[in-house]
Amino acid sequence: MDRSEKIGLGVALVGHVVLFGLLSVGFLDAPEPPKIQQQPIDVSLVPDVALEATAPQSTEAPAQSIAPDEGAPEDAAPPAPQEAEPEPKPDPVPPAPQPKPAPPKPAPKPQPAPEPAPKPQPKPKPAPPKPAAKPAPVAKPVVKPQPKPTKAPPTKSAPAKAAPAKAAPTKSAAKPSAAPAKTSATSGKTASASSAKPAKPSATKGSGSTAEAKTSRPRGSRLGDNFLKGLSADPSPSKSEAPKAAKLGAQAAANIGSAILRQVQPCANRQVTPGPGAERIRVTINLKLNRDGTLKSRPTISGHAGVDDDNRRYVDRVDDLAIATFVGCSPLRGLPDDLYDVQNGWSNFSLRYKLPG
Amino acid sequence: MNPVLTMDSATLSPIHLFLQADWVVKGVMIGLLLASIWTWALIVAFWRRIGKTRKGMTRFERDFWKAEDIDVFYKAEGESELPSARVFAAGVTEWRRSTAGGTIDKSGTRERLATTMGAAVAGEIDKLSDRLNVLATVGSVAPFVGLFGTVWGIMRSFTSIAAAQNTSLAVVAPGIAEALFATAIGLFAAIPAVIAYNRFSHGINRIEASLNRFADGFHTTLSRQLDGSR
Description:
The complex is a heterodimer of chains A (357) and B (230).
Chain A: H1 3-24, H2 79-84, H3 147-151, H4 158-174, H5 180-196, H6 209-216, H7 250-270, E1 282-288, E2 300-305, H8 315-328, E3 348-354
Antiparallel strand pairs in A: 1-2, 1-3
Chain B: H1 14-19, H2 23-66, H3 70-77, H4 83-98, H5 106-128, H6 132-164, H7 169-228
Helix pairs in contact in B: 2-6, 2-7, 3-4, 4-5, 4-7, 5-7, 6-7
Region (Disordered) (chain A): 52-246
Protein name (chain A): Cell division and transport-associated protein TolA
Organism (chain A): Sphingomonas aurantiaca
């Protein structure tokens, strides 16, 4: 090592020491990153989560169908017979009346429609006069209101009427040999219909009795011709005085959920992520709350989502962290009191939670 | 400037990076640091040596061609350490030996003169270029050594990731930074070494060429003397 090498070694040593000394005292440090100015942003938080009815307002009652008022209802029974006599007589009356004037009387049948038998009366009377002429022309044995006519003459109103219906079969059988079943059916029907609604007669189309009935019947009810269209005559049955049950709707639930998450955020931020991928695990946590916002019991985990092979081993840890988060910030404030114990209320509230990050 | 040694991990403090490194990386860093020091020592030495040599050779040749009498000049400059002087001394010595006897073999003398002075030139160049190979070695190997340290350090960082089961940058970054520091030192040593090697080998080539020219010129002079003396 000659002199120049010794000099060189000395120079190199000094140079390195100086260089590393400068680096050590931060001579070449990267400049401090400029401080980021945080511009304040106006944030307005909605303080209360309001109770919202999630059901539609009560619906309007369907329109009623009201027939034109043709006059005040009247008792048809007494007058009917007399008036009816002339007109109705035609077809219906004739067949039945004659054969069974007296015999049918026995009105023991159950049918007892309360109705004041309007039909019976009309028929009975007409029967005697025209029966003879029309019987033949009228094809229908069914139509036979025979039973009624029979009754009418002897007794009078409702009770009597019921009986005739029953009796009819027997008579018919004896007389024209028409289908007894049918007759009875028809007669029964008419009876029941009439009993249900005084106005009905007009609707029934069965026999010639309709025509007569109309003339003699009371009118002006609320029922029109199309009363069977499914509309009820009851006045606005859909109106209910009872208050609608409050229900925690989806939107209110979401509001409460985010209100809760907002309040536990400080505790959530304190949790340390156990490992990569753990923040993808979303646990469904169930909170049982008192009305004052405290926990009634320790939160429970009811489900997981987002678990894959990478983060499966962190599931238990994430559960613990989630529970610790909610326990740590447990008195939850500002939850709407009116939604506490309603259906799906927040007394028992489930929400999804995941670790921050 | 802050006069206190900054030891937090966010700075580029070489001492901090060195202290927190793995021992393998530490060894690599120390070796590379020594190589860098040695490289710079050689650079300084070569700089001085080559510069002095070329200056001296220029002066010597100027004096030589101005000299009236070679014997006188030899007495004055024959003991110099300059390569030109060595070549000149070798030529003069051989000339004196060859012309000492009664009969002179002219062609044999010329050959001997050429061989002797050629050997002297080669010897001087050898001496000058001594340790230039160190620069070449450092220049080519230091990056790989530094890379080895980096790879080792990064492997260690990954194992620490696996151990901590945490990939946050705070866990990974220091290890990678200290590992990369090894490569930085390797490049720090290698770049000057490569530049210096190229520069100095070029300088030595020029010295060799000028020595050869001088030797040829002196040989021509002696050869003419050989003819003229007869």
